[in-house]
Write a structure and sequence with these properties.
With 308 residues, the chain is α/β, with parallel strands linked by helices. 29% of the residues lie in helices and 21% in strands. It has a single domain, classed as L-arginine/glycine Amidinotransferase, Chain A (5-stranded Propeller), CATH 3.75.10.10.
Length: 308
């Protein structure tokens, strides 16, 4: 039987983290203020990364750390979940990313190392469609929220998440799709599904207010309820504090942990914290620099490793 959460993850220790103007085109969670202090930002991001790895390791989660390469410069390398996913049927999937500046993040040396370590038998590669008039993209578990047990793929459509590739993923991996549009406070499409939604073993955290279409909202709600998920509804403001960007992972002893940023934790209501704590141990990680300039939070920094 498939598992929803894993005790093994990999992360990329950043070398040149910083504000990326290209990704900011459709990531409203990024902030440019102070971005010119590049050395200070790089240093702070590395410190936040190392502290996060220490917390995860201390709580019995196996963390494989790969160092970012200095050349070519990759300001968003700390977010590997956008270019690769791992699956219990011995599959690895790699993805095409929207920003050209991010495409060097897809590193064959990492794919080869993990393929050998865990004996993956098949790789599915979604190619970059640079020559197409209207190229299409899909960005891993940024775009796709996977219910691995029930084989359901939740995804909000955006410039980084195209319906054609969602359908192709579902066909190849045996999932059914739940596709919708989600918008922020300004009415702009939310760039990644994983900033407005997270799935655990028996719960879902979701910003239903961001799903503007009533029928789509109800369809998502019905699908979640049909799989027995307890639903934690967050507000747009909580979403903007990355309360949707959580990830449940397991310790080696089987303890369920919910990884979330300090910013996200502080945005939650007391009752939400209490109920989530009843379902998972809460691992609260301060990563203000990475959130501010990268526009992503703890979930984006983690690539889960599933294998048979």
């Amino acid at each position: 039987m498939s598992k929803q959460i894993t005790d093994t993850i990999f992360m990329i220790r950043p070398s040149n983290f910083g504000y990326n103007a290209e990704t900011a085109e459709n990531n409203s969670f990024q902030t440019k203020e102070g971005a010119e202090e590049t050395d200070k930002i790089k240093k702070a991001a590395i410190e936040e990364f190392d502290a996060m790895v220490a917390v995860l390791t201390r709580n019995g989660i196996e963390v494989l750390v790969f160092d970012d390469t200095d050349v070519p410069l990759k300001p968003d390398a700390v977010f590997p979940n956008n270019w690769i996913t791992f699956h219990e049927n011995n599959h690895i999937v790699t993805y095409p990313m929207f920003a050209k500046s991010r495409r060097h993040e897809r590193r064959e040396d990492i794919v080869e190392a993990l393929t050998e370590k865990y004996s993956y038998e098949r790789r599915i590669t979604f190619d970059f469609y640079e020559d197409e008039k209207e190229p299409v993209f899909l960005e891993g578990t940024g775009s796709l929220i996977l219910d691995r047990v029930n084989k359901i793929c939740y995804a909000c459509v955006s410039p980084r998440t195209h319906v054609f590739l969602i359908e192709k993923f579902c066909l190849l991996l045996g999932y059914t799709k739940e596709v919708f549009f989600a918008r922020d406070k300004e009415g702009e499409e939310i760039y990644h599904t994983n900033v407005m939604m997270a799935l655990g073993e028996d719960f879902a955290v979701i910003c239903l207010d961001s799903i503007v279409d009533v029928d789509e909202r109800q369809s998502v709600l019905d699908r979640l309820e049909s799989t027995g998920k307890k639903i934690f509804e967050i507000t747009i403001d909580q979403m903007n504090s990355f309360a949707g960007n959580m990830l449940q992972v397991s310790s080696k002893d089987g303890t369920a942990n919910l990884v979330l940023s300090e910013n996200a934790y502080n945005s939650l209501e007391t009752e939400q914290k209490k109920e989530l704590h009843g379902l998972s141990k809460l691992l609260v990680i301060p990563i203000p620099t990475i959130e501010k300039y990268g526009g992503g939070s703890v979930r984006c920094m983690i690539a889960e490793i599933f294998y048979t």
